[in-house]
Amino acid sequence: MAQGHLLPMLDLARLIAGHGARVTVVLTPVNAARNRPFLEHAARAGLAVEFAFPGPALGLPEGCESVDMVTDLSLIVPFYDAMWLLAAPLEAFLRSLPRRPDCLVADSLGPWTAGVAWRVGVPRLVLHGPSAFYLLAVHNLAKHGAYDRAAGDLEPFEVPDFPVLAVVNRATSLGFFQWPGMERFRRETLEAEATADGLLVNTCSALEGAFVEGYAAALGRKVWAVGPLCLTDTDAATMAGRGNRAAMDAEHIVSWLDARPAAVRGRFKDYGLVIRGWAPQMTILSHPAVGGFLTHCGWNSTLEAISDGVPLLTWPQFADQFLNEALVVDVLGVGVRAGVKVPATHVMLLNPGDPLVVQVGRDDVERVVAELMDDGPAGAARRAKAKELAHSKVAAVTKGGSSDMDVKNMLRHVVELSPKDEQLVLGAAEAGAPVLPRTGSVLSPSPRRRWSSRRLDALPADAGRVVKIFGKEKKKELDTIDSFACEN
Question: Keyword Amino-acid biosynthesis: yes or no (predicted)?
Answer without folding.
Answer: no
